[in-house]
Amino acid sequence: MKKTLSQAELSTHLEQLTKQSHVLPISQLLSAQAISCVDGRNFTGVVAAPGGNAGLFLQMLAAYELHTEKLLSADQISSIFSAYQDTFGHFYMHSDAHALESLVNSLQVRGTAINSVEHLISLLSAPPEPLRPVLLELLAEPAHTGCGHIRLMLENQETYRIRPFLIAAFVREFLTRFWAGDDRLQFEILQGNHAEQAILNIHAQKPENDDDIPFVLVAPQLHDIQVFINHPEATGYMHRQHAAFMTKEGYLDEADQQAFIKVHGALHGTQLTATVQALGDGLPIFDVELNEALAVQRVERLG
Predict the structure, then answer these.
(1) What count of Cα atoms within 13 Å lies in the side-chain half-sphere of residue 38?
(2) Could you tell me the sign of the dihedral formed by the alpha carbons of 226, 232, 233, 237, in that order?
(3) Which of 33, 118, 170, 194 sees the fewest Cβ atoms within 10 Å?
(4) What kind and span of H or E run contains 299?
(5) Half-sphere exposure for 56 (CA within 13 Å, toward CB)
């Protein structure tokens, strides 16, 4: 049975957690900070959304296809990703040691000399050229996908309303550019087992001007306590940014932006609900609101 945090235990945890947190102005969200995944196995302060930047990018592609009823090609995805990097900068995707252990087994079946997860990790930033084609193939398979949100996308395309082709094409683009040394890309390998005890939606007090929304960076793991961390305002902000971006790139008309944002938001709701049910089933969900001095203003249990 899963260990879960009570509201009283959460209050005690937040006292310690806020001491390690800091505020990030919205102006720095894209220039200085990647958006990490909600995964609880991370000791650093994050702004988080399901799947991180990778999950949001894939959601944008799927929302475009749903909204326009047009299918994107591999060349279009490559072009979009290139422009996305130039527009938004830092970009995060993660895997984990469990997925890499499965990948090592598959690579050994293929006759490679990879003999351990540690060996594989040592090669991942710049694999030998002969190994790259098989890695591009295998790293787009569910068994070798360490981000639970993206793995669920691959396994449940109808529920998540996304074509697996979009994911495979994106993974190929990301890894190819990562191996070429693009330092805007972050590919993190998370260690250990999932032991999240709650799901926290982190909110900062809203200023009068929505353009100045601050984000509070919170560590999903502190000492022996893990929680899923989610920043809903960051997701909503990125949906609006995505609409402007896809318009700038010629995929949307300016008059169509609000309709696209609505589709994007609805898809996010569908995917978030499915991921919470799969990965966070039985965990309490809390809204936590902090002010800019990192004082807790509100804790409300949602489920």
Answers:
(1) 28
(2) positive
(3) 118
(4) strand 296-301
(5) 29
Backbone angles phi, psi at 228, to 5 degrees: -75, 135
Q: What are the residue boundaries of the structural domains of the chain, listed by start?
A: 7-301
Confidence of residue 1 (pLDDT cuts 50, 70, 90): low
- Helical H runs in 116-231? 117-124, 132-138, 148-155, 157-160, 164-179
How far, in Å, CA of 281 to CA of 138, rounded? 28
Q: Measuring CA to CA, which residue among 133, 137, 151 is closest to residue 94?
A: 151
pTM for the whole structure: 0.95
Rounded to an integer, the average pLDDT of 79-93 is: 96
Which letter does DSSP use for residue 218 in this model? B
Rounded CA-CA distance 232/106 in Å is: 37
Token pair 């790259």: residue: 132
**What pLDDT band is residue 215 in, cutting at 50, 70 and 90?**
confident
pLDDT at res. 5: 93
Residues 38/148, Cβ–Cβ less than 8 Å: no
Angle at 279 between CA 277 and CA 285, to 5 degrees: 65
Q: Are strands 91-96 and 185-190 parallel, antiparallel or unpaired?
A: parallel
Confirm if 81 and 173 have CB atoms less than 8 A apart: yes
pLDDT at residue 240 tops 90: yes
Rounded CA-CA distance 232/209 in Å is: 17
pLDDT at 210 over 60: no
Q: Among 229, 226, 167, which Cα is nearest to 191's?
A: 226
CA 187, 144, 63, 237 dihedral sign is negative
Question: Which single residue is written with the structure tokens 């589709």?
Answer: 263
